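Predicting holo structure, thymidine-5'-phosphate bound.
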Amino acid sequence: MNKNGKFITIEGTEGVGKSTNIAFIKSWLAAKDIEIIHTREPGGTPLAEEIRGLLLTKRGEKVDSRTELLLMFAARCQHVSQKIQPALEQGQWVLSDRFTDASFAYQGFGRELGFERLEQLEGWALQGFKPDLTIMLDLPIEIGLERAEKRGEKDRFESEQIAFFKRVRNGYLTIAEKEPERMKVIDASGSIEEVQVQIEKILIEFYQNYQTEIAMETCS
Ligand code: TMP
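Done. Tokens:
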């Protein structure tokens, strides 16, 4: 029996439809008898959720980009050590709405702190811990922001300029180019059904690989 669960993350810029598609992924896996723990970043534990509050609140004081990055990682270390890794070790699957790729995209590219600095920090803080699968919902920034507009009051990130989000999107696409096996880019500009057909294709392949892994472990 496979002792470790799988870790899936979902990423994208504002308004790409993460919530709707998280619900789809959960129900698709539930039909295969896989219950997945749904969590989010920044956040996921009581302490990390407090850090989320600090990060998202709009304030008069300018937030230094390094402060922002370190708070993201502070929350992440707590989340990984207290929630994600213990769950995976017990064989549970975990689905996180955002993870380290968001720091590469938002802080590394959006805030222009740089890819190498992010790699160093990731190496130290997470020691090679990465998702097994990342689904990146990709949408032209203008369309996503228009959708996000309808959600009410904007947080500190949503209040950023369009140029910032264009760098973030470019950041995600750069990671996907570097790690095509792990990060799958979905064209999120179509209808919900069209987007879900693409996600389902990825899930089918991922699930088949998982079953092969289990079969091999049973044989050995
Ligand atoms: P959410 O709106 O998807 O819940 O995420 C909160 C905001 O935090 C979102 O605008 C993206 C941002 N963020 C980063 O800038 N860096 C990170 O590492 C994470 C996890 C989120």
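The domain at 7-219 is CATH 3.40.50.300 (Rossmann fold).
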